[in-house]
Design a protein that fits this description.
Layout (H helix, E strand, L loop, with lengths): L19 E7 L10 H6 L2 E6 L34 H4 L7 E4 L2 H4 L6 H5 L20 E13 L5 E6 L9 E6 L10 H15 L9 E17 L22 E11 L2
Parallel strand pairs: 3-4, 6-8
Antiparallel strand pairs: 1-2, 2-7, 4-5, 4-7, 5-6, 7-8
Length: about 260
Amino acid sequence: MAQRSRGKKRRAGLPAPASIVSQQVLVPARAAPRGAAALRAATSYRILRTNEVDPKDRPIPRAAVTPLGAPAVPVSDDFGGTARKAAKLAIATANTEHFNDLQDLLPTLASKTAMNKHKPKITIEANSGRVAEEKRNIRLRAFLYAASREDDNDFHLIIGRDVTKTPHLYMTVEISGLPPNSFKSFTKLKAARDAFKAFFKEHVPGPTYDFYDPPVPIEVEGSLFFDMSHVGGQGPGPKSLHKDIPTIWEIHPVTRIVFEP
């Protein structure tokens, strides 16, 4: 488990120390050919596997968390959910809006109150498609702070601002489980999922959150999505970051992700 230096303030975006189950160092494959050991060290990331989950999920005791490095149980890449399936697996038809800071994107999103009172009403039924406010495509420069894999086989990413910037703000983006290959969205969703898995290799996250130290710079692109499943309860995200996730809007599905752009 990570030890904290006495008197040293823990940086923003890290998990509660008591939640850390195991850790390993990830050296991205693209860093290896560059040669210099110092450069490889500069582009390595500590993965901190925790027992933190979303507030809506059943708590998982530390003893039940598979440590990093242990053989992983194979999981499906197929989307296994039903809630708003039509919207989650569809890509909006719209020009792509570019944002270099999450703080600039957040004010452009409709409020939870407005979306909850939306006409026509947004439901969580499988056939609930995209409404007008969700017909936006976003490209955002950000940092990946944590990720987990949900029961529906989506990878749940918590992205945020540069750690040196305040206020600290985070948002959810989702690498979708895959639809049947007959879907128009299949090729882009598979490319995004393949890119995510290629970067983390055997260290893809499981049902509890992995945190990344330092956070991984990314460029992510996809369609906006309002998560109605969180309207009546607590929002998404691990306990350590939850208070700084101000929205239940997501980028979902992700259609393109670039690590270390």
